[in-house]
Amino acid sequence: MSLPLTEEQRKKIEENRQKALARRAEKLLAEQHQSPGSGSSIATNSSQSKQGPPPNLPRDPSKPVNHGVVFLQQNLNSSSNGNQRPPNFHSFHLSSPGQAKGIGKRQEDEIKSTPFPPRDPGVEAKAARPCTSGQNISDTNCGSGSATPGTEGRRPQKLGASLHKAGSSQKGMCIRSGGRFQVKIGYNAELITVFKRLPSRSYDPATKTWNFSMTDYGALMRAAQSLPTVTLEPLEGAEDSRESLSTGGVAHTCLPSAPSLAFVKGQCVLISRARFEADIGYSEDLMALFKQMESRSYDVKTRKWNFLLEEHNKLIQSVRCLPQVQLDPLPTTLTLAFASQLEKTSPCLTEPIPEADLSGVDPKLVSNLLPFQRAGVNFAVAKRGRLLLADDMGLGKTIQAICIAAFYRKEWPLLVVVPSSVRFTWEQAFLQWLPSLSPDRINVVVTGKDRLTAGLVNIVSFDLLSKLEKQLKTPFKVVIIDESHFLKNIKTARCRAAMPLLKVAKRVILLSGTPAMSRPAELYTQIIGVRPTFFPQFHAFGLRYCDAKRQPWGWDYSGSSNLGELKLLLEEAVMLRRLKCDVLAQLPPKQRKMVVIAPARISTKARAALAAAAKEMTTMNNTKRQQKEALLLFFNRTAEAKIPSVIEYILDLLESGREKFLVFAHHKVVLSAITRELERKQVPHIRIDGSTSSADREDLCQQFQLFEKHAVAVLSITAANMGLTFSSADLVVFAELFWNPGVLLQAEDRVHRIGQASSVSIHYLVARGTADDYLWPLIQEKIKVLGEAGLSETNFSEMTEATNYFYEDPKQQKIYDLFQQSFEEEGSDMELLEAAESFDPGSASGAPGSDSQDLGDSVDEITSTGSPVKKRRFEFFDNFDSFMFPL
Ligand SMILES: Nc1ncnc2c1ncn2[C@@H]1O[C@H](COP(=O)(O)OP(=O)(O)OP(=O)(O)O)[C@@H](O)[C@H]1O
């Protein structure tokens, strides 16, 4: 005789019975999918959807069925929703004849063969994780249906209303708890599965209840409605509240079943010239599709699938048939740039760059090109003269740019836009490398009154360009932009002036050793400068490569994303970049450069003082002592006159991204003016001069070596030319010349020594119309003598061939002779040193004023009306906040 069942046992049996029924219903549904003549075809389902549930499925709602089946019924009921993009496989497969119409046979087959979404809760939970777009299941599964025309006009069932369910269904309720809500109900395995798919789920072991944020309320209620074994009372007052609507309240008729809540979204990303990767979450359907791709490869490290570019379009087309997957294709810019790979028009991955025919370019230039420079010219010609040449600093971008421009000489006049401090250095470079170019065909624009088109080669500073561009009637066909990162901020006048010129020019040669100093957004203007059709909207570029984020005040593009892809795109279509270490074997250990600094920056007063000093030197009947004094004064006046140009050059170097360098000067006034300016700009720096104690020298030197970012060492030529190591820098700037070349070489070797792995750049700043006119040839002469005697490997004259510093004028010859005699005399070093130390510009007769008072008196900054223009020249320090676009 059996004992009567306890309440507990009855409940358990009922639960088991329901589970068994659910399993059976699921099996039936699966069989229906597999059977060829069954209702699994889209067409059949479409017709069924009009007629009601398929005959082999339970019709009686009072009979328990599993959630998948209930979901099917719900979809059948909502079959009028023809325009709605189905949120998941089930709704797509089993409903919506409108959708079915648009599906081809092959897609149909794919859909038919698509298995059920994963049942393993772990896998499901993974799939249901918020996808890359930030969507979570609560908005992906219902959002699309919530406001579609197909659902309009149909009276939606209230979200919270309990459906009529089997009398044995388990009852529970939702209760508000702060900003969340909790579900009070006994154990129900299916409901737990639903819970586990909701992103905001949290389990409280103390009360043994699950709780959720309100964002998941709609999804939970809809999923619970689809479970025949569960009846959930809604939250009080939530039925018609905005909360329920915002979570998709009106769309409950298309509710997905719990397992199909997963929706994955991702994008294709280029990972090499030949392959792209699908950056997307897990989806079983997608996985099946990936496995059909011939070129598929799985990267165990990134846990992502990648494919050959030639399969990109095929994959994208196939994925479009998976309604629960959104895989964004590569941006059009990339597909255009890599068209040969996508269309497999090129049999080899990297085609060799053809050798350019440089027979029309001056042989002097061509024969001097180093192999990597020649390759740079070939690359530029292969890119039809439009490129960003981003070689490391000091690799000779100037000579390459001149050669590329000379290749297109028939299309000249040429425009060369450069930082103001190097206008004359560029002039020298043209004279040096293109002997066929008559010097009078070079037009260096110095003032706002000059003509921009007066020469065959026109060299202009960024700032003057923005004042003179209106002069242009016909555009330049060939344009060089030196330090093109000066254009990084689209809002600046210089950028606004230059960009239209680049757009219409046929050849655009951008030069920069540091195209972007802190963020990819800085590259945008340079990319479109070279390729105006790339990323027509900055926003699209920002979204992909700048990790664009919407902020309350607008979009923030200061981040970075997909950098590997950006690099590939740049290398393919825009940029050539070689690092020093790549071509070190081709480089000399030291590269010297004579920088002709802008004479226009020498103030009128300083000019007058220089002229007076020079005149004094050539005055007849002067005693030897008077001659010496005149020479010292000329030397001192030179130092003073060079200060504005020196400072401008140093600031341009910093703006160009030079991080660490040494500046040698001789006069105290020059050292002080430089350090004062660095302090003003808050650039970390050290100073070592005659007044620095031995102990401090070592400390300061160590400090400089350890500085991580940009820093400048301001050093006295005579006090810091020996015994110190500054090998963490690879650039030395001589703000002043010194008559003793041995001292200069020693100073150079502060960076060129053991510990220095790089080729070292040395820049000598030379000002015309000053004592430099005499000092420079004197130094070259002396070095030559040392070289001939085997005492120096250095040949200074090589870099100044084009510079005629020897004067025909007998007066100038006399000054030169005087310098020569003085420097050869015993003790002259000491005398010059003292003169430099004690020189006080304010006290000298005819003095132009104390050290840097005249710094701003530049012709550049005088407009055509003669009024000084106040502006922030050095954006590098003042303005990091570019590219913050308003919404
Ligand atoms: N092939 C060459 N033959 C002789 N001198 C060269 C050659 N290439 C470069 N130089 C010299 O090397 C020095 C550095 O070159 P350049 O100023 O063009 O470098 P860069 O790449 O523009 O550097 P930065 O980015 O610092 O301006 C110059 O004095 C230049 O004349």
TrEMBL record:
GO terms for cellular component: nuclear replication fork. One of its GO terms (biological process) is DNA repair. Residues 33-51, 132-149 have a biased composition (Polar residues). It is found in: Nucleus. Residues 1-169, 839-866 are annotated as: Disordered. Residues 649-802 form the Helicase C-terminal domain. It catalyses: ATP + H2O = ADP + phosphate + H(+). Its main location: nucleus. It comes from the Eukaryota. This is SWI/SNF-related matrix-associated actin-dependent regulator of chromatin subfamily A-like protein 1.
